[in-house]
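debug: dumping io for the single-chain case to check the tokenizer round-trip. Nothing else runs in this session.
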Amino acid sequence: MPSPTAHCLQYLVRQPNLPMANAWAHTSADDLVEVPLLGRISAGMPIDACLENGSIEVPASMVRRNTYALRVCGNSMVDCNIFDGDVIVIEQRESAENGETAVVMINGQEVTLKKLYIEKSGVRLQPANQHMAPIHLRNCDIQVLGMVMGVVRQPELTH
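debug: decoded output
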């Protein structure tokens, strides 16, 4: 049985093989599973990794192996339908395809949420917001931590 607060939330699950801006489908709050809510992720300038201990209930359809959640802070991913205050559901992975939206650690201490592009000169972390500039780094400066599988949104945060 879903918790009473589950009915107040919107659950968006990522559909495979679609661009992120169009990849979201609503899913029901039936069959909820608890996953760890590990802290915050910047959708803007990278922030120091800061782990927290918490949890959140999400639909089982969002859960893969090694799944966790992070609260989004910032607006760099709005064109991918990920907004400040959303909770993103992440599948832990160590690699990403070109153009995938990933949780990335920079220099072993800062984390950010961006589209990842591998280029001849290194890596480009591209925001999904035309008003924000990309971040250019060397391959050795980044570590992919996971891929976005779903979004949990409060109704008042609907955009």
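debug: round-trip ok. Residues 135 and 150 are 24 Å apart (CA to CA).
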